[in-house]
Amino acid sequence: MGTDGLATGLAILSTVLVVAPLVAIFVYLIYKGASSLSLGFFTQVPKPEGEPGGGMANAIVGSAVLLGLASLIGVPIGISGGIFLAEFGRGTKLANAVRFTADVLNGVPSIVMGIAVYSLIVYRQKHFSALSGGVALGIMMIPTVTRTTEEMLLMVPHSVREAALALGVPNWRSVLSITVKTASPGIITGCMLAFARVAGETAPLIFTALGNSNWSANLNEPIAALPLQIYTYAISPYDDLHRLAWAGALVLIALIVAAVSLVRFVTSRGVLKGAS
Amino acid sequence: MIAHVPETRAPQPALPTEPSSAGTPPAAEASAAEIAGIRGYLLSRGNSAVADRGFHWLMVLCALSIFGIVVLIATELVERSQLSWSKFGLGFFFSTFTDPDTKLPMYWDPVNGHFSALPFIFGTLVSSFLALALAVPLAIGLAVFLTEMCPRWLRTPLAFITELLAAIPSVIYGLWAVFVLVPLLREHVNPALTKTLGWTGFFGDDNPTGLGFVAAGVILAIMILPIISSLTREVMNAVPGSQREAVLALGATRWEMIRMGVLRNARIGIVGAVILGLGRALGETMAVTMVIGNTPQITRSLLASGSSMASVIANEYAEASGDLHLSALTEIGLALFIVTIIVNALARLLVWAVTRGAPAQVH
Question: What percent of chain A stands above pLDDT 90?
Answer without folding.
Answer: 46
